[in-house]
Structure formats: C-alpha cells, structure tokens
Amino acid sequence: MITNKLKNYVLPCAIALFSFTSVHAQNKATAATEGKINQIIKKMTLAEKIAMLHGNALFSSEGVKRLGIPELTCDDGPLGVREEVLRFDWKSAKWTTDSATFFPNGSAIAATWNPALANKFGVAMGEEANARKKIVMLAPAFNICRMPLCGRTYEYYSEDPFLNAQLAIQSVKGIQSQHVAACVKHFAVNNQETQRNSINAVVDQRALREIYLPAFKASIQQGGAYTIMSAYNKVNGYWCSENDFLLNKILKQEWGFKGAVMSDWGGTHTSVNAAKAGLDIEMGSSGPYDEWYFANPLLAAVKAGKVSENVINDKVHRILWVMFHTSMSANHPAGKMNTPAHSKTVYDIASESIVLLKNEKHLLPLNTTSIKSIAVIGDNATHKFSLGGFGAGVKARYEVTALAGLKSRLGNSVDIQFAQGYKPDYQTTYTDQQKEDANKPNQALIDQAVATAKGTDAAILFVGSNRDYESEGQDRKSLILPFGEQQLINAVTAVNPNTIVVVIGGAPYDLNEIKKANHTIVFSWFNGSEGGNALADVLIGKVNPSGKLPFTFPASLGDSPAFALNTYPGENGTANYKEGILVGYRWFDTKKIDPLYCFGYGLSYTDFAYSGFSTNKKVYNKSEEITARLKLKNIGKYAGKETVQLYISKVNSAVLKPEKELKAFKKIWVEAGKEAVVSMALNVKDLAYYNDKTDKWVVEPGQYKIMAGSSSRDIRAVGSINVQ
Ligand code: BGC
Known about the structure:
With about 725 residues, the protein is an alpha/beta fold. Among the domains are: about 340-550, Glycoside hydrolase family 3 C-terminal domain (Rossmann fold); about 605-724, Immunoglobulins (Immunoglobulin-like, Sandwich). About 30% of the residues lie in helices and about 20% in strands. It has a seven-stranded mixed β-sheet with strand order 1-2-3-4-5-7-10. It has a six-stranded mixed β-sheet with strand order 11-16-15-14-12-13, sandwiched between helices. Strands 19-27-26-21-22 form a five-stranded mixed β-sheet, with no helix packed on it. Helix 4 packs across helix 13 (about 340-355) and helix 13 (about 340-355) packs across helix 19 (about 530-540). The longest helix is centred in the first third of the chain and has 17 residues, at about 115-130. The structure holds beta-D-glucopyranose.
C-alpha cells in the first residue's frame, strides 16, 4: 500500500475569537446524546456496524444511509486541507475549488511559542475543513523531535513535551471549535521515518510518560481531541494499532478518551488482536476494502465468537460520539476558505516564527534609506513550499515567495536583482547516488550569483531545504545544507561584505560554517501562503523577530543522543531509546555538550533586561500552585516580543533528573523603553517525575532551582523554592 502511495505522490503534480474556554470536554456527552447513540446501535445490523469500522475509500468510512448516518470523511493535514484526490486513487481529482490556505508548518508554529496562534491556526483550518466537507482533519502532528534528521520534523512541533503540549491543546481546540474533529497523530513514539512501517521503538516507561506521551494526554484531556491516529511503528514489541497498553490501558482507561482511534494508512496488521487492543477504525490506501482486517475478516471473527459484539458496539459508539460532536452536531458551521482572516492568521504565525540567529553588525533591520541595491540570491527566494512531503501537501490558493515579498515591500525604492545560485534537483525517489549528486555545487550558477552580488549594497542569500528534501517516508542523510549551498554562501560572502544568510527549512541544519564566517543569519520555515511577506517585513524591521528555536541545533550530529548512543536507525528492526528521558536539550545540558544553537534561542532587534525575579512563596506543599514573577524591560530602540522561559531543576535529586526542564513560558509585547510584569504559574505537581518501579508520578520533596531565561542557555534569573 505504501509503495503504491509513494508512486502516486511523485507523479508530476504537483479568529474567530481566540478562546481558551471552549473546551469540548470528553465527559460532556449528554444523557440525550448517549440515548440517541444507543438507539441507533440497537437498530444496526452487525454488517452495518462492521462497515463503519474500516475505510470505504481513501479518506472515508461508511455511514448508515437508512438511519441517516453520514460517511465519516477525513483529510490531511497539518499544513492545510489538502488537495482533493480521487476517491480510490492518490491522483489529483483535478477540482478547481480545492485551492486552500497554506498554513505554516508545525515547527514554525512551535517557533512562535504562542499557543494563541496555534489556536487561530486551528480555527482557520477547521473553517476550511468545513467548506470542503471534511469531518476529521488528520492534524495536528506532534511526535517529539527526538532525532534531528527525521523527515517529518517540519510537520512536528518540538523536542520538549511541555511546549509540545501547549501548542497541541490549542491547535485541537481551534479545529474543534468548528465542529471538526482533530485527529492527533501519530500515537505514539513515531520519531523516525526510516523503517517506520516496521521499527520497534523500545522505550522505558519513564521516558514514555515524561517525554513521548504528555502532548497526547494534554490534547485529549485538555484539548478534548475527538480522534487519534495510531502510528505505523511498534512500541515495546507491539504494533501501535494493536497496542493494548497504549490504546486500551493508557488512552481509553487512564485518560478517559471517548472518541475513536483510527489507524495510520495501511498500519493495521490483524483483525482480532487490533479489535481487542483498542483500534476502532482501519484506514488505508487501496481496496478491495471488503477484504481489509476490519471488514469481512472481522465480521467472520465476531460470528465465530473470537471478538464479542460488545467490542464492536463500543467502536461504533465511539464513531457515533465523534459524529454527534461534528457532522451530526447542531448548528454545524458552513465553513469558509481562503478568507482575508485566514491569510492574516498565516501572516501572524509566520511573522512570529522567524528566528534571528545572528545580527552582529546590526545589518538588520535593513536600513532602507542607505541601501539602494540588493542582490537576492538562492533558489529558495523563489521556491514555493506548499506541495511535497506526501500527505502534508496543500494546493495553495496563492503563496508569496521571499523574492515577491521583498519586491512588494522595497520594489519602488531599491533595485532588486535575482540569481538562482543553486538548483534543488532532488526527489524522494532518487537513488542514494542521485541524492549525493544533488548536493554538488553548480559552478555556473554560483558564478552568476557572484556577479549579481558584487557591488550591490547588500546580498540576501536564501538557502536551506524544501518540501522534497524534508519529507514523510524518509529521513535526511545528514545535517549538511543541500544543493552545494555552502559553496554558494562562501562565494557570495567573499564578494559582498553585507551578506545576509536566510536559511529556510523545517528542521535543524549544520550551520557551523555560516555561524563562524557570517555576521547575519536568519532561520525561517515553510511559512505558508504569506511566508514571503512576513519574511520581508522581518528583514525591513516592520516586524521585530520573536521566534525561538523549538529544538536544539546540534554542533555535530554525533552529539545528539540517538547518534551518541548509536540507536538510530536501530538494529535488527529495533530502535532502543537508550537515552531515556534525556531528549533534546535535556541531553545536551545534562551531558554538558555545547549545541550550535540551543533550545529556546532567538534574538530580537531589541534587548530585554530581566529583574525582580520572585516566587509568591518559598515553601510549597504538593497541592499548591507556584507563581513566578519578574520585570521585563525593553532596553533597546524597537518595540518587540520576548518569550520568557521558566525552567526547573531538582537540587540533589535521588533519581536522574535533567539539568533543567521547561515548565512554563510567556510571550509578551513590550514597547521600547517600557517595562512589563511577567507572571507565570505552574502546579507543584508538575514537578513530578514518573517512578517506573511504582508506576506513579512522584514529587520529590526538597529544594528546586527555578530559572527564568531568554533561552535554555541564557538564564537571566535564578531562584530557589522548597517542596514539602
Ligand atoms: C501518514 C499520515 C497521513 C496518512 C494519510 C500516512 O502515510 O503517516 O500522517 O495522515 O498517510 O495521508
């Protein structure tokens, strides 16, 4: 099935009001709804029930026409409602009405550190889903960014479970505010694409609970997600689609999930085991649908007494419960596509996601009175990022490229010349040799770029990757900048002292050479329909950058835990997560390894001074809330936003604890010269670690260090509290 899908993808083809309160609590199913669901189930034949439990086309499962139950329709995905494909084939349906808003990718949303924007993203995508009559959006995707080469890092949010959870909750709430079900994915421990259909991720209970599950738990319990997608891989020996521990024990029993679990496409392996272990709907790519595990074979298993009809009824109940909150809900919104408000949401996310990595000469923001000519160099200046990467592609109604953004902002006053600089000749289907060849520099294009850059007041180099290079179904081979970009950067930098490097990508890259040799570096993302406008506004200073890295950029691949411990891609089909809880900065800090750029890093055009750090108390009991306060003064010339990050560490812990862990953050706007009070709250019980011997969350009594920082390595204030 997967091969089939791959083949077809590579064919030439291409606020509402922000509200933290609109929780669709799982337990709100009224008695009336329960009654209706039970009545429907009573009227259904076994065959009708089974028909609801598996796909009847690529993106739908059966309803019951005679009882007025519609099909359950779904669609990808994280970057917007994808192009309509044929009912039984991944090929484009060639609609003319399916152009949609292209939203910034997951790591871009994460780089905003702004849950309110994640909510706005969800609302806008929910509205577009309704306009396209999709009931389940296969989004958001937020597997932990464990390993920097993972091909889907750009779809996911972060290496940190807390940041991950805050964004997941709000994305889900936003989508579901439109009576569209979010399908949070991929449950669970799906952190690499290499061997994703077979790999067995062996992970200890503590890492599972502290790192890999929190965002799923939060999206269910706080976000109220109606559906969840089981991952392709195995966890601790069992396929995620038939993992009794994950699906029945944790998700349904412990977390109280009332919705439906659907498999990833083609990720079901058995009828009886999967049915008993908690999978509710089997989805996949190609028919004959009647022969799928959850079709005739499951019907036969029920008739043979191998699976009880109660198990089937429970699954149907869950699907109907989802429907009563979505397609069959009262006042179901009509939806809308491509509205100015959606574009504004994209612009706002993009503007807040861009990370200023280095600005040593204060070349940024561009001085548009003295700069009269700019050489814009690099394919990424004109590249569009909406399509590619399998399921996460969007047929964008429009996409403003970086060059178009700069021209629209500066075109009348500045002479802008473009040179391509490199050719991104890369396809997921290429052989290793072809992929290697794609990274060779193109001297003719470099020469042209050098000629264009020579003598201009500034050169802006747009490098990085694209949606073919970072993709579902494959991991990157290394962290190096592809397509001979480093040679291009060196050549252009040598002839133009005012060279600004803008790296566009969705994951960490090796920027060692640039960090050493270049004075001005910006990191941007696959930033959606308005990406070019937002980027231009950051470069000219209309927007003061406020993005912070949602994951560590290692100085060398070998420094990151999966590589340091030689656990990627695994041996004999098993990836042993030996680093346990030490994922991302938890590893780098604890092991005292300097990263290239640390988690939470990002500069601004202004500076912020932290002072007056305090907590409301010094000694807490385990049921109390800690409030930390500080004063944040904008001591520079530009108004801007700062994300204050609150980290905690246990002093003299009896068990292994990371050097520090993010427990709260707040993004706040401060006018130049002004001071703001920042207040952050967390519960003492959030300091707990998971004791895998007793299977309990434990708050260790004693002293904790509480740290406020501008990044995980730029701690500006330290306090101490005691827990009794
Ligand atoms: C991906 C899912 C996606 C599904 C449907 C799978 O290959 O892993 O994330 O939702 O395809 O396109």
